[in-house]
Design a protein that fits this description.
The complex is a heterotrimer of chains A (about 160), B (about 290) and C (about 375).
Chain A (H helix, E strand, L loop, with lengths): L2 H8 L9 H8 L2 E6 L4 E3 L7 E7 L1 E8 L3 E9 L3 E2 L13 E4 L3 E7 H10 L1 H26 L10
Antiparallel strand pairs in A: 1-8, 2-7, 3-6, 3-8, 4-5, 4-7
Chain B lengths: L6 E4 L7 E10 L4 E8 L12 E6 L3 E6 L10 E6 L3 H7 L6 E8 L14 E6 L4 H15 L5 E7 L8 H9 L3 E6 L9 E2 L17 E5 L2 H14 L6 E4 L15 E2 L2 E2 H4 L2 E3 H9 L5
Parallel strand pairs in B: 8-9, 8-12, 9-10, 10-11, 12-13
Antiparallel strand pairs in B: 2-3, 2-7, 3-6, 4-5, 4-7, 13-16, 14-15
Chain C lengths: L5 E5 H13 L3 E8 L2 E6 L10 E6 L2 E6 L16 H4 L3 E10 L2 E5 L8 E6 L1 H15 L6 H7 L3 E5 L10 H4 L11 E6 L5 E6 L2 H8 L8 H16 L10 H6 L5 H7 L7 H5 L6 E7 L5 E7 L9 E2 L2 E2 L4 H20 L9 H4 L7 H10 L11
Parallel strand pairs in C: 2-8, 8-9, 9-10
Antiparallel strand pairs in C: 1-11, 2-3, 4-5, 6-7, 6-13, 10-11, 12-13, 14-15
Helix pairs in contact in C: 9-11
The chains are: A alpha+beta (about 160), B alpha/beta (about 290), C alpha+beta (about 375).
Chain lengths: ~160, ~290, ~375
């Protein structure tokens, strides 16, 4: 753990309202890192062994298709977390994540995090409770986007 | 220019299409037209499940289209063609009595003739991907009726008006096959499922170990679908996908359809997922 | 005389050999100096051959210089390869016409004369063998290619002066002629100007017997070996082929692809001069009078539309297209045709406008095997 990681996580919106002991537990498995624009944080299909708390910059979540190239399905910014597939089987990233600009993150080792969650039920509850809220919000937003409400009224 | 009337004298050669006449046409959903074709100068060899022909619209060009009828089924061979460019548009507009050119059959097959008795077969189709599987599913339903193994059909489409072969899907369900249909986006009046096609998997009670899975549709669908099937317990080597690339000669001579070690027209389009397509899907060309 | 025998002919013998081929009705093609390069043209005798011409080749560079000496084959290879004789740059494969509402289809006839090649290099013999596998060895062979190849008579000429871009020894295709020829000549300049001749087939034996030939002495055979050994030692560069196919296969995300793409113009010159590239467009063309022609013409994987699928090309970037070309040529060609696609002729190196050298690119990747692209996290 580094002091830098703990400070960054203390101010991160995803962990807002968490008791200091809980933040310290997360920080024990964490290290800050930076990504230059265009670099991939992770690739679809690879093991979800890191989750990233964004502290600066933007990250695009992408799917690549053979004759369309990478398609951005969502953009996440400082205060958000990218790489949630560690939370459930098959524990593999389902999309690519790419740094849009200069990105600063705190990387958290998810294998060690899962151990910490199992050993610390309160942290486990707080984190998964917050995770559920974030996932619900993204799911609800995605459903609205699927409706293509900006399309022509006779689109269907 | 669409060739009308009968074919005259005709030469043969590897790039020469045989003249077939349109004896029937049916407008399907989603900009798709099914043409029924009969030979006028001699028939081509029998085809196997999943193979394709190179179909010529005389004066416009040639495209690769899978057969949507079953091999050996009585009656004319059928091709379901989606309107995506000038050649397919001309084929979709071909009136009964006009001539089209056919070369084939080419490519690898779904291989359902070799599946063991008792094994479940899962078919996952997205959009137009149901067309190359249609004849195959007909035969798999017959196999189920004969007590030789179950078939599970999972069909996804963009929206209800884009569901292909709806009558066939209902008939297969009537015959006892498990049929799941879902759309990405609903329309008013749609009471069916809304979601990605892989979400149909949990409700399909196939025995994953020992199953054979056949996938055809957009590459992203086959990528996610293949992974989901393997996660469910299907042997990755028994998951088969149908690849699509630019095809011009159809016989491994022109090089356009290359994908890694494969010439898709010759070594595909149907290839195994585990140990081959799973890696090829991940190649980036950004 | 039989296949496997050897002999010696003089300059007059070579001249008579060419005249004999012409007299027998072959379309006789050989190397000629024209427009500043050694290209292929119809030849009627030894006078048509490029005496005194020598090539200087380097990445992105080709110069022909006249030294005034009698050497006929003192150069390596020019931009043209024999591929265009059998796999034509553009060809009508069928023609359909409409008359009184009835459609008829005809296939244009094949060539009226067989082809005789004088001066094919050993690397070019290997290239024709590769093309035979690709175009005539599959389940559905190209019948027009096969018809043109049948009946072709080949007089090969071994290399004495490889250029700095040659690497046939790495690809095990030369500088000596191994197979695929009817006669193979080696130009001997020490002592009398003469040609050591190896008989490769009954057709070659029969031709030789029409000429005035003398028995090859041990001196002749030694002189020939000296030429071949000298060429082998003077090879311009090398390509390490050990594990090359697997090396490239596991380095598809190597940063070198992006690096070479910054230099590559995606012009396709390399595919045009390569003696084994076979990509072709198959397109139907219709005329106002209702005639339809299906034409097959040379295409290049460097063309952005080469991989077009409704929606867009599969390989939109120069990086992905260069990677496709090189990995196909020396790696996946093995999967598809059980041979390498490269014969080490070096044409792609000389004729690349920016001088990209595939031996250098492969070596760079080998030196940093496993390097991750800029995109990936370390």
């Amino acid at each position: 753990m580094s002091e830098a990681a703990r400070n960054l996580l203390s101010g991160h919106a995803f962990l807002a309202g968490f008791p200091p002991e809980a933040i310290a537990l997360v920080a024990e498995q964490a290290e800050p890192a930076t990504f230059r624009p265009g670099v991939l944080l992770f690739r679809e299909g690879s093991p979800a062994d890191v989750t990233y708390f964004i502290t600066k910059g933007s990250v695009s979540i992408e799917v690549h298709a053979p004759n369309r190239g990478p398609m951005v399905v969502e953009t996440l910014r400082a205060g958000q977390v990218v790489g949630l597939s560690w939370a459930a089987p098959p524990f593999r990233y389902q999309f690519d994540a790419r740094a849009v600009d200069e990105v600063e993150v705190v990387c958290v080792d998810t294998a060690r995090l899962r151990v910490a969650l199992a050993e610390n039920p309160l942290l486990g509850f707080l984190l998964l409770d917050r995770l559920a809220a974030v996932i619900l919000e993204r799911l609800q937003a995605t459903r609205i986007r699927l409706l293509d409400i900006y399309g022509k009224s006779d689109a269907r | 220019m669409l060739a009308e009337a009968t074919a005259g004298s005709w030469a043969v050669g590897p790039l020469v299409p045989m003249p077939y006449v349109v004896v029937g046409r049916r407008e399907e959903a989603a900009d798709v037209v099914t043409l029924s074709l009969e030979p006028t100068q001699g028939a081509l060899p029998a085809f196997r499940h999943g193979q394709f022909n190179m179909v010529t619209s005389f004066g416009r060009g040639e495209v690769a289209v899978s057969m949507s009828s079953a091999p050996g089924a009585p009656g004319p061979v059928e091709h379901s063609i989606r309107r995506v460019g000038p050649v397919t548009a001309a084929l979709c507009d071909a009136p009964v009595g006009s001539l089209v050119g056919i070369r084939g059959p080419f490519g690898t097959s779904w291989g359902i003739d070799e599946v063991e008795d008792g094994a479940d077969v899962v078919v996952m189709a997205g959009g137009i991907g149901l067309a190359p599987l249609r004849g195959t599913v007909r035969d798999l339903v017959a196999r189920q009726t004969a007590g030789r193994g179950r078939v599970f059909v999972l069909a996804g489409a963009r929206s209800p008006d884009q569901i292909l072969f709806h009558d066939d899907l209902m008939a297969w369900e009537q015959a006892g096959a498990h049929v799941g249909i879902s759309v990405d986006v609903a329309a008013p009046g749609w009471t069916g499922l809304v979601g990605v096609v892989t979400a149909l998997l949990p409700a399909a009670p196939f025995e994953a170990p020992g199953s054979l899975a056949l996938l055809c549709g957009p590459e992203i669908m086959m990528r996610f679908g293949g992974r989901a099937l393997v996660d469910r317990g299907v042997d990755a080597g028994r998951v088969r996908v149908s690849l699509e690339r630019n095809m011009q000669c159809g016989i491994g001579l022109c090089g356009h359809c290359q994908l890694g070690p494969l010439l898709v027209c010759r070594d595909g389009p149907i290839v195994r997922y585990g140990g081959l397509a799973d890696a090829l899907f991940m190649e980036r060309n950004r | 005389m039989h296949a496997g025998d050897d002999a010696v002919i003089d300059l007059d013998g070579l001249d008579r050999l060419i005249a004999l081929l012409v007299a027998r009705g072959y379309r006789t093609i050989g190397p000629v100096a024209r427009d500043g390069a050694i290209v292929h043209g119809e030849v009627a005798g030894a006078d048509d051959l490029p005496a005194g011409w020598h090539d200087i080749q380097a990445p992105g560079r080709y110069r022909l210089e006249q030294a005034g000496d009698p050497e006929l084959f003192g150069w390596a290879v020019g931009p043209a390869s024999w591929k265009s004789e059998f796999f034509q740059p553009t060809e009508t494969v069928w023609r359909a016409t409409m008359s009184d509402g009835v459609l008829s289809l005809r296939v244009p006839p094949g060539p009226d004369r067989p082809v005789a090649i004088v001066g094919a290099r050993p690397c070019e013999l290997a290239a024709l063998d590769v093309l035979d596998r690709v175009l005539a060895g599959g389940e559905v062979p190209d019948d027009r290619y096969r018809a043109r190849r049948a009946g072709t008579l080949i007089v090969a000429v071994e290399c004495g002066k490889p250029s700095s871009t040659c690497f046939c020894t790495s690809m095990d295709t030369g500088p000596d002629a191994r197979a695929g020829y009817d006669l193979a000549l080696t130009e001997l300049l020490v002592g009398a100007h003469r040609f050591y001749a190896m008989v490769g087939s009954e057709a070659g034996a029969e031709l030789l017997e029409e000429l005035h030939w003398t028995a090859a002495t041990e001196d002749d055979r030694r002189a020939r070996q000296d030429v071949v050994d000298g060429a082998r030692a003077g090879m311009g560069r090398s390509l390490e082929t050990e594990g090359l196919a697997a090396l490239l296969g596991r380095n598809l995300e190597h940063p070198r692809w992006d690096e070479v793409a910054e230099r590559c113009l995606s012009c396709g010159n390399c595919t045009l001069v390569c003696p084994t590239c076979f990509c072709a467009d198959v397109k139907d063309v219709s005329e106002v009078d209702g005639t339809i022609e299906r034409r097959r013409s040379w295409a290049s994987c460097f063309d952005v539309d080469h991989s077009y699928l409704h929606g867009g090309p599969i390989r939109p970037t120069t990086s992905s297209r260069y990677r496709q070309w090189l990995t196909h040529k020396v790696s996946t060609w093995w999967d598809q045709f059980d041979t390498s696609g490269c014969v080490g002729c070096g044409r792609c190196i000389a004729w690349c406008p920016v001088g990209i050298d595939i031996t250098e690119e492969a070596a760079a990747i080998r030196a940093t095997d496993g390097a991750l692209t800029q995109e990936d996290v370390q």
